[in-house]
Design brief:
The chain is α+β, with helices and mostly antiparallel strands. About 15% of the residues lie in helices and about 10% in strands.
């Protein structure tokens, strides 16, 4: 991940490059000022269709969720929060399979319990603690 899931850019990095980079949607990121024409969570809460903002996560909107920082572009490279854990898990399993015959160290953290908490649909409603509990499940 280029940053934590609550910050832009909301893309995966593989071998030093943006995974699934979309040249038709070049990525621009700023933590200082917004990009003209890009809606912000603070100004357009109606566009936060997946999760309402909290704790200052009201700047760029990616996947219907407010983030810290400003971003434009990304196209097909942008992740879907509900698939983060699955994507990271698949990569970890593949790495283990490819390296099973040699020593390695793997730090495995899926980021789900950190804001924004937007677990996959198969986990939603499974815990009385709401989205945080669902992410832990």
């Amino acid at each position: 991940m280029a940053a934590t899931a609550d910050r832009v850019p909301c893309v995966f990095i593989e071998n030093g490059k943006v995974a699934n980079y979309d040249p038709s949607a070049p990525i621009e990121v700023s933590y200082e000022k917004p990009f003209e024409g890009e809606p912000l969570g603070a100004d357009h809460p109606e566009l936060l269709y997946n999760l309402k903002h909290s704790h200052g996560h009201d700047m760029a909107i990616v996947n219907g969720i407010g983030r810290i920082g400003y971003m434009k572009g990304g196209g097909k490279a942008l992740w879907k929060d509900e698939n983060l854990a699955d994507s990271i898990t698949v990569h970890a399993i593949n790495f283990i399979k490819e390296n099973k015959d040699k020593p390695f160290f793997m730090y495995f953290a899926t980021n789900d319990v950190h804001v924004p908490r937007f677990p996959h649909e198969r986990f939603r409603g499974k815990n009385e603690m709401g989205l945080r509990g669902d992410a832990i499940v």
